[in-house]
Amino acid sequence: MKKFMPVEELARDERFNQITQADRMADGRNALIGEAEKSRKSNRLTPARPDASEAARALMHGIFVGEIQALEGAGRTCWDFTTGEEAPFELKLDMARQAWDEARHVEISLKLSDWMGSEIGQYAENTVLFQAACSNDPVLRLAGVNRALEGLAIDVFTTMKEFGEIAGDPYLEFCEDWMLADEVTHVKMGSDWLRKITENDPERRKKALEFQGIVDKMFSYGGSRSDSEESSFAIARRFRELAGFTEDENDHIADLGMQALNERKAQLREKQAAVTN
Amino acid sequence: MADPTKPRASFAPWDRRELPGSFSVEETARRVGNYKWAETKLFEVLGGWIATVPELDIKLRLGTHCYKHAWHAELWHKRLPELREMNPARLTVPANDALVRFVDAMTEPEDASLTIEKLVGVYRVYIPHFISAYTYHLNNTSEITDMPTIRSLKFILQDEFEDWRDGEMLIQSLLETPDHVDRAAAHQAKLEKLMLEAGGIAGHGSIGINTQAPQGALS
């Protein structure tokens, strides 16, 4: 088996429909703002939203496929790098542990999707998460996956946990809380390894943090995550701090989210103007 | 109330553990190093295969099993310094070149259509050889001097049996035609021949056959 698998080769059964981030952003339907969206004061996912059920099901499917890709990414880190030479033995042990955790998260997401009334393949699978796990440098991979992607998971799971709490769904709240505990552990793994491996290599650390910034912005999905009420998810600062993010780092991620949100709004305005004309 | 000054037998009547064992400290360290290498190769390939199998249930099982074998490798890694090997990497080696050839052949299948071959290599050949080597070790080491190894072997064997059963059931669920059965059997035979050459995960003598009592053994 070769090292470094391209995202196009991810193995799936016929129920899955894969799209790239570019496909998603190029979808013209995303530019159309409906009446419900225009009148909404906040984009946060709450049970009060008229489209709450559908939005929660779509998000849960997104979590499900994201967990599959996180599982595959952690597994590939066990395989792609030579033990001792390219990646420390203990780092690989952590990645194997993460693979087990992600496998459980897929199982949890499957049960929750069933509970919420959706099916595998009902929504498209965006493969952007695995793309972040394809770096040839294990440090960049940890920065992209464990700190950026798993950091996003902290934000998303916090939102879903609150959604379950407000909606009076203890099943959802219970599961999200358990997954949240694992994600904090994974982000901490990433933070710890990043510090340890680049202790005497500031250039490599800088490169890894820059890569994390790119992935963080990519995972902000056009501003879906920021401190603004216009974003679907807030920055879960408390849990992020537990995972090793500093206040400055959280502020930086919030800024990236706002930047992405404003860029997306500008794009939407352009597309709206094009539709109107 | 029991008399606290009354002498008791040092070993309770139900404690039948024996002192003699077949392995010296050096031989135990050699075997443990081989185990760590073999478990490491196993968790690495299980991790790599996750993205290559389209069957969702199998994908998830591989993720779970990947961690279990990583944990086994970690247990052996921690045992090595306790066996006077302060540089665990020195003994983390394959038992012989034939075992490397076996692992290379086992890890070769990559295409999404080769799930049967992937599972057969691990669950019908490699893991059964772990079970046999670990069982031989468990049954032949000193029950008193080498208790830490025994404790790890027992934990690990529990996992190996469960994983073997999981894997075997997955294989059976994939065998839908006589051609599938032939594929599984052919791949198993190919790998088993390589393992025959290797003699097992700790080399010849993995299960006590074709070997002389190691130097320093007390039996």
Automatic annotation (TrEMBL), chain A:
InterPro entries: DUF455, Ferritin-like_SF. Pfam families: DUF455. This is Unannotated protein. It comes from freshwater metagenome.
UniProtKB/TrEMBL annotation, chain B:
This is Unannotated protein. It comes from freshwater metagenome.
